[in-house]
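Table 4 source record.
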Amino acid sequence: MKILITGSSGFIGFHLSKKLLDKGHKVYGYDSMNNYYDVKLKKARYNILKKYKNFSFSKNKLENKNSLEKVFKKFKPKIVIHLAAQAGVRYSIEKPRVYLDSNIIGSYNIIEVSKKFNVKHLIMASSSSVYGANKRIPFKETDKTETQLSIYAATKKSNESMAHSYSNIWKVPITMLRFFTVYGPWGRPDMALFKFTKGILANKKIDIYNNGKMYRDFTYIDDIVDGIRLLINKIPNHKNFGKYNDDSLSSVAPFRILNIGNTKKVFLLDFIKEIEKVLGKKAIRNYMPLQKGDVKQTLSNTNLLKKLTGYNPKTNYKSGIKKFLNWYLNYYN
């Protein structure tokens, strides 16, 4: 199968590309390799992928529609998995324009070009952050999502709305995936597990927001990849929509929104305690108030994804942390 993956040198994109290449699929990677975080890490991921004969790659921005069209024309993908985005809640407060360009203009281009080249199934990354200030836990796809707390989350919500309208008018089959705090080897340096590990090993203070009174639905990377892989051939159409989704979400478009998480509540202080235990070293803790744009809790209801694919996350946070730390210590010597 010919699969185009945007953000192929990113954290999730790299793992998914590698898994699909191992399964014998032809993968075309598309990534801007921007310097939001360590480009060396992105290049190291790319160097692993380029060893596969069935892997091709273009370095360019999503905003460059001409570049995208050339890739689609040359590769003729049947499946497009759009994972590329400007990530990070904090950075979106400092540089909101970057998010509008990459996440909204870039995603619009992906949808438009997928329509033009009759892609069989477009899978797009959304985020659990769209739930924003919602109080009802666990988060369910049918919950209202009108209270985003960051620019990043707002761009992801915009993508969902734009994708639904495109799907409705031009019948482009689209699945939106709301990811819940993904972590694991080759992860992003701006995320909690990476930052905590780096700080503890360097004997530096680690910032713990909201005085540690928060929890996350930490989801291990292999579980995320398995969930996406299982979805590739589960193509949405308006006839089967009601079978897997609540009718209040849509009834005419070949479109669906799905949560993809671990469905387990992990308190931040327990998460830190486990890192300390595996490293055999105590953190120097710097307790701080909740930061702008952040949420206190996330927890997923993944019944729809399970019903559709049999999705069943297998990795608990303790073994996930251990696997990450083994990779980290090895990669950074």
